[in-house]
Design a protein that fits this description.
With about 120 residues, the protein is mainly α. The chain has 2 domains: about 60 residues, no CATH class; about 60 residues. It is globular. The model has no long low-confidence stretch (mean pLDDT about 95). Bound molecules: protoporphyrin IX containing FE.
Length: about 120
Amino acid sequence: MLKTLHLTFILLSLISFVGRVILSEVNPELLKLKVLKIAPHILNALLIGSGFVLVFQGDWLSGDFGWIIAKLLVLIAYIGLGLFVMKSQGTKKWVAFIAAMACIVYIGIVAVTKNPWFFI
Ligand code: HEM
C-alpha cells in the first residue's frame, strides 16, 4: 500500500518536473502561478517522506543499506540538477535535464535491485 503511494509520488513528481520544463519553454509566465510553485515541493516532500517510512516499515537499516544511501545521494544530485535546469537556458539546460533523468533511472534501478553497483 505505502509502496504503491511511493510509486505514485514518483510518477507525479516526474510529471510535475517534466511539465515545468516544458512550460519553461512554451509558456514561462505560467510558472509564476502559486500552485505551480508550491505543488512540486509538496509532491517531493511526500515522495521522500514515503521513502523514509518505507525504510523503517521494511526494517531496511538492519541489513545492508548501501542502496538506501546511494538513493539519497543521487536524489540530492537530482534535486540540484532540477534547480539548475529551471534556472538555465540552452545546451547547459538540456545536458542537466538528461543528467537529472539519468539520476531518476539510476534511483529506480537501485530501488529494484538493492544494489548501487548494479552496472558493474
Ligand atoms: C526520486 C526518488 C525515488 C525513486 C525514483 C524511487 C524509486 C523506488 C522504486 C521503483 C521502488 C520499488 C522497488 C521494488 O518494488 O522493488 C522503491 C521502493 C522503496 N524506496 Fe524509493 N524511490 C525514491 C526515493 C526514495 C527515498 C528518498 C527513500 C528513502 C530514503 C526511498 C526508500 C525506498 C524503500 C525503503 C523502498 C521499499 C523497497 C522494497 O520494499 O523493496 N525511496 N523506490
